[in-house]
Amino acid sequence: MAEVIIVKDQDEAGELYAKAVVDLISRKPDAVLGLATGSSPLKAYEHLAKLVKENNVDVSRVRGFALDEYIGLPLEHEQSYHSTIRRTVTDLIDLNPDLVHVPGDVLNGAPLSEGSKIAHAGADYDAAIAAAGGIDVQILGIGSDGHVGFNEPGSSLASGTRVKTLTEQTRVDNRRFFDGDINQVPTHCITQGIGTILRAKHLVLLAFGSNKADAVAATLEGGVSSLCPASALQMHPHATVIIDEAAASKLKLADYYRWVYTNKPSWQGI
Ligand code: F6R
């Protein structure tokens, strides 16, 4: 099962992620990072940028692959994940932008109707990840409905990167980024599949706040089911779930996870 670490706040979670990534880069200077957008990983990226600067880590060869992108938004749109990853990760950590990829980059804002462009984009993205040797550490957030990436409930647990239709709930949740207007939120996206995500060597899922508590409980302690796509993490050999007390509040085994982490040998990383 996943390692579950209950932390006091997002800074503590961010420090754990940053240390794991800096250790990885010291072993593998051209490490491949799997990147997520959304609010959950923001502190983690800030801590990574800080640790990289403090330790003078050479990140010039580090590569990145984002999880997902809206279909039909121009790359330069403030809310495209291309722009968001550039702002919150690439520029912040000073990665080489040529080595950081977002699944919609090749589509360049093409609308859904341009099927010929879009049809192969997912398979091409998975091939590019494989050609890079696979993702070393994939950071993940989780939706209140258990989605990871844009794999909404019902997604195949073996899926590759592909076009998906966003649920009404996700479009309602994300309208805050589009002047509160759901009509501006795209209806479709391209997202790494659950199968793609499971091929990453290490998964680090971050969740904070009570609105994630049900999804976290279903992910860790429910059955593996496409109704909660994140529950596929139970099938991964190296998954780390870092959550705050509020997100952990519905876990039956919370005391056990705390005990395990407290007794973890200091030489073991996450
Ligand atoms: C982001 C992504 C989504 C988010 C999830 C949680 O690239 O794929 O799955 O991780 O919607 O969003 P936040 O972190 O904003 O609560």
UniProtKB/TrEMBL annotation:
Family matches, as PANTHER family: GLUCOSAMINE-6-PHOSPHATE ISOMERASE
Provenance organism: Gardnerella greenwoodii
Means of activity regulation: Allosterically activated by N-acetylglucosamine 6-phosphate (GlcNAc6P).
GO CC terms in record: cytoplasm
Protein name per its UniProtKB record: Glucosamine-6-phosphate deaminase
Residue ranges of every copy of the Glucosamine/galactosamine-6-phosphate isomerase domain listed in the record: 12-236
Catalytic activity, as annotated: alpha-D-glucosamine 6-phosphate + H2O = beta-D-fructose 6-phosphate + NH4(+)
Keyword Hydrolase applies: yes
GO MF annotations, alphabetized: glucosamine-6-phosphate deaminase activity; identical protein binding
Cited function: Catalyzes the reversible isomerization-deamination of glucosamine 6-phosphate (GlcN6P) to form fructose 6-phosphate (Fru6P) and ammonium ion.
